[in-house]
């Protein structure tokens, strides 16, 4: 009983001594919670009952439940982490003073009681002000008819989530203070521990992107930060970002969880907080009192910390100097940054640990060891010693493979998650998440061919006269038909490996293998969101476009089902040879219309002349894909050389025609950019040199852009230099 009373007395005494800390926390959360809630709810009150966000429409109670006590938890975690730093460092700062240590250790209190009393006191200094503010916010929401019983679970989840974020950050802060003996070093140590695995993740991506041509990632993302599944998230920042990031496998099954937290991962943060807390406690018990004032309390940790800091910082410096250099591809500035960063960081680390500038050149052996490790890593990356770019799994290792052919009918996916949010997936991501090709030898054969050839696209910095440079001309001609293809190798061991290659469409063997992949029915099923069995969305209209006309047709559920079934039957029989050599008649795009906007859900899907049943069904619905454009509907046709980028006072090569007979001849040899944009890079029938603009005879003078069929430009077309308005 006496021990228990003493423990609580120590907590009470620490709260009194550090009363400034909860006051600062209180002020920070007042500005972050009550003030922000009042501002946001005022917006709703000016627009009674409703709030619009994109296509979503929701009420003020939904905002409080789903945003304020929901998704905004990610933003509020910044304030929570700052509170954790403050509470953690201030609670144990006495460890840096020998006088204070002697005073504390002279008390009839065990080290265990002293450590845990301050630990609990720090948590209370955050938790009590935070909970008070949350309850006040609940009262504000209730006073504005924005609180309901459904909000209670969200509010409790919000409190628990912020407590977990605080706990893991607080534990790391305490650990950093216990490991160090100087306040400045403690702050630096806390920052390093907090971000370290995230920085490794970022550095890995930067280095792989620089040195490996085939490097590509898919999967989790939050903002601009990619969370790699191959780097263990042991730092609080990594764990917090992963907690609030999107699902790994962004399929339709995961879409419902898109704006919810992964409850299973919360326990990872809880376990991390426990582990870091126990580590801090065990090190605290072994910490010598006379270590106060030293930079690092445990000498054995010093060389490990130096290596862990110096090598990554050196490569960050190398990337920085490389990116700001005139030519990022050159190794010279990268090497300069690597050497400069290594030397400066090594010297700074020695000065910090010695707290004396005279210690800058101490520990020469470790300097050489870290330098050798840095050089070895550079050599391994620069010369691809481990064969990253040439690696293709053996057939016996593969469970399935996903393939994404760039610019070949790239179909994105959009799905509503709730009344206030939606799920959007780009074509590459969708294919990697949903495609699973098996038993197609063309997949691995093309991958091995691309890995062996190691084609890379060379970019030139433009200068006047570059078009006449033989090297530029040769390179551009060679790269004219280059395109990218990505592979997602799913291995039998559960691992997924991604690679991206350049392939040359001028190579007949490459096109043959590409045809084997594209002609596979499973490729089309895995790359078309509309065909996804789990994507059961009621769409009320379809946008149809042919060579000159656009119309939106209203659909009943029966009409949608019939059109989808008919199109799927014909689309899955489409071959790459047809795509490359047959002109499409139009595109269809399934949509959902609302009071505020028309939203595309399927993206533009190409319709070819071979899709006889689809064309007939659309004609039955009221749109003729094969209707022709006549000169009577056109006001003028303008032609310009699309390769002429010189728009100065000398003008550009262009021509304009208004004669109906000439216009008709032009129309007979033109195809709309809108219906070929999904296959532009693969269309052998297009002349890409000239951009043709048609202005129609209607009130708003709308216009469309067209291309000539290859070799079909009428002889009367003569382009001359004309000045255009910039």
Structure notes:
The structure is a single chain. This protein has 726 residues and is α+β, with helices and mostly antiparallel strands. The chain has 24 helices and 20 strands. It has 5 domains: 2-298, no CATH class; 299-370, no CATH class; 395-531, no CATH class; 541-621, no CATH class; 631-722, no CATH class. The strands form 6 sheets. The protein has a 6-stranded antiparallel sheet with strand order 17-19-18-15-16-20. Strands 10, 11, 12, 13 and 14 form a 5-stranded antiparallel sheet that branches. A hairpin with a 2-residue loop joins strand 1 (51-53) and strand 2. Helix 16 (441-453) packs antiparallel against helix 18 and helix 20 (557-571) runs antiparallel to helix 22 (612-621). The longest helix has 33 residues, at 111-143.
């Amino acid at each position: 009983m006496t021990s228990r009373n003493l423990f609580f007395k120590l907590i009470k005494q620490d709260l009194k001594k550090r009363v400034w800390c909860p006051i600062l926390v209180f002020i920070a959360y007042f500005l972050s919670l009550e003030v922000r809630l009042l501002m946001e709810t005022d917006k709703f009150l000016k627009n009674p009952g409703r709030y619009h966000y994109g296509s979503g429409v929701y009420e003020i109670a939904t905002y409080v439940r789903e945003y304020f006590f929901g998704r905004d938890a990610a933003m509020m975690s910044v304030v929570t982490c700052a509170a954790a730093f403050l509470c953690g460092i201030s609670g144990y700062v006495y460890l840096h003073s020998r006088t204070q240590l002697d005073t504390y250790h002279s008390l009839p209190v065990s080290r265990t009681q002293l450590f845990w009393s301050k630990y609990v006191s720090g948590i209370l200094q955050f938790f009590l002000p935070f909970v008070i503010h949350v309850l006040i916010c609940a009262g504000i929401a209730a006073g504005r008819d924005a609180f309901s019983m459904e909000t209670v679970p969200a509010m409790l989840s919000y409190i628990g989530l912020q407590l977990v974020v605080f706990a893991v950050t607080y534990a790391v802060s305490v650990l950093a203070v216990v490991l160090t003996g100087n306040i400045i070093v403690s702050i630096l140590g806390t920052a390093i521990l907090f971000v370290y695995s995230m920085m490794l993740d970022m550095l890995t991506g930067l280095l792989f992107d620089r040195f490996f041509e085939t490097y590509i990632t898919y999967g989790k993302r939050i903002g601009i930060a990619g969370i790699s599944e191959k780097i263990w998230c042991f730092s609080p920042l990594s764990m917090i970002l992963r907690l609030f990031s999107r699902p790994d496998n962004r399929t339709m099954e995961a879409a419902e969880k898109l704006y919810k937290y992964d409850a299973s991962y919360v326990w990872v943060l809880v376990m991390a907080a426990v582990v870091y807390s126990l580590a801090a406690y065990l090190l605290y018990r072994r910490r010598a009192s006379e270590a106060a004032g030293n930079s690092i309390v445990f000498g054995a940790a010093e060389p490990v910390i130096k290596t862990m800091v110096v090598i990554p910082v050196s490569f960050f410096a190398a990337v920085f100097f490389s990116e700001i250099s005139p030519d990022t591809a050159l190794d010279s500035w990268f090497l300069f940054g690597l050497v400069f960063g290594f030397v400066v960081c090594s010297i700074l680390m020695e000065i910090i640990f010695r707290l004396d500038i005279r210690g800058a050149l101490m520990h020469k052996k470790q300097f050489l060891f870290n330098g050798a490790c840095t050089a070895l890593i550079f050599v391994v990356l620069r010369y691809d010693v481990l064969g990253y770019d040439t690696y293709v799994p053996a057939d016996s290792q593969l469970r399935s493979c996903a393939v994404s052919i760039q610019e070949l009918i790239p179909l994105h996916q959009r799905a509503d998650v709730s009344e206030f949010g939606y799920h959007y997936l780009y074509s590459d991501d969708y294919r990697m998440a949903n495609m699973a090709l098996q038993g197609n030898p063309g997949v691995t054969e093309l991958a091995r061919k691309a890995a062996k050839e190691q084609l890379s696209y060379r970019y030139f910095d433009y200068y006047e006269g570059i078009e006449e440079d033989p090297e530029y001309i040769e390179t551009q001609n060679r790269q004219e038909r280059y395109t990218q293809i990505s592979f997602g190798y799913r291995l039998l061991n559960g691992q997924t490996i991604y690679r991206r290659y350049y392939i040359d469409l001028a190579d007949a063997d490459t096109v043959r293998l590409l045809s084997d992949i594209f002609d596979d029915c499973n490729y089309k099923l895995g790359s078309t969101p509309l065909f996804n069995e789990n994507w059961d969305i009621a769409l009320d209209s379809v946008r149809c476009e042919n060579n000159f006309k656009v119309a939106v047709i209203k659909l009943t559920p029966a009409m949608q089902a019939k059109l989808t079934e008919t199109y799927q039957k014909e689309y899955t029989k489409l071959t790459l040879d047809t795509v490359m050599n047959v002109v499409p008649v139009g595109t269809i795009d399934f949509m959902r219309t609302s009071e505020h906007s028309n939203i595309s859900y399927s993206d533009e899907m190409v319709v070819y002349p071979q899709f006889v049943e689809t064309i007939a069904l659309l004609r039955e619905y009221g749109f003729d894909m094969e209707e022709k454009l006549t000169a009577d509907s056109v006001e003028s046709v303008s032609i310009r050389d699309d390769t002429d980028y010189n728009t100065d006072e000398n003008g550009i090569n262009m021509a304009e025609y208004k004669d109906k007979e000439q216009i008709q001849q032009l129309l007979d040899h033109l195809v709309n950019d809108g219906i070929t944009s999904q296959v532009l890079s693969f269309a052998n029938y297009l002349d890409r040199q000239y951009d043709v603009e048609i202005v129609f005879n209607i009130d708003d003078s709308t216009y469309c852009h067209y291309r000539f069929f290859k070799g079909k430009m009428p002889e009367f077309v003569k382009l001359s230099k004309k000045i255009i308005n910039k």
